[in-house]
Amino acid sequence: MIESNDYAGIVYHFDPGLLTAAVLLLMLLLVLATAFLSGKKAWRGLCLGTLIVAIALIIYLTLVLREKYYRGILPIPFKRLADSPQPAAVLSEMLENLLMFLPVGFLLSALIADKKRRPIAVTVAFSLGFSLAIEILQYVFSTGYAQADDLLMNAMGAFLGALSYSCGRRIREKRSA
Q1: What is the DSSP letter of 117?
Q2: I need a surface site. Which of 1, 7, 70, 101 has the fewest CB within 10 A?
């Protein structure tokens, strides 16, 4: 669906219910896979393959799918939400950003949990860098507005994904002890 508003020109926007259901299903499958495959080569391969697909999908949705004809910078967090005549559409877009990075946080944290001391912090830092690169490229290629909101929501999604992996791992470790 294409939606228009004063701040962002044209924004590609997906049905949040469908996107939410797809991400929650993916997260459920990953949690189940954690319970049965964790620590095995198959688990690492599944995580790496799914992470590559998730990153490619994010690049496709945020850079390739969009038409090239508008750009700008919105550096003040949540200003667009406060000023929008359609706050529900802006909230929906913010939710989409959060949901897009949820699997990235989960998968990256799962891949580095044994190798790094602070996998959640590393995951959030990676996601912020990746998100910043997307925002810069959207500006350079005129495919969207570089927004502070996007950085915050993407980092929050990665944080929640990493946190969910960390919690699941602790539960699994307590059960097996």
Answers
A1: S
A2: 1
Could you tell me which of 163, 130, 135 has the C-alpha nearest to residue 149?
135
pTM, two decimal places = 0.82
110-119: long-range contacts at Cβ-Cβ below 8 A with a sequence spacing of 24 or more?
A: 110/30, 110/34, 110/43, 110/47, 110/165, 111/44, 111/47, 111/48, 111/51, 113/165, 113/166, 113/169, 119/162, 119/165, 119/166
Model confidence pLDDT, tens digit, residues 43-66: 788 888 889 988 988 898 888 887
CA–CA distance, 26 with 99 (Å, rounded to integer): 11
Residue 63 one-letter amino acid:
L
Q: Which amino acid is residue 70, in one-letter code?
A: Y
Q: What is residue 139's three-state secondary structure? A: helix
Q: Shortest CA distance to 120 belongs to which of 162, 170, 164, 171?
A: 162
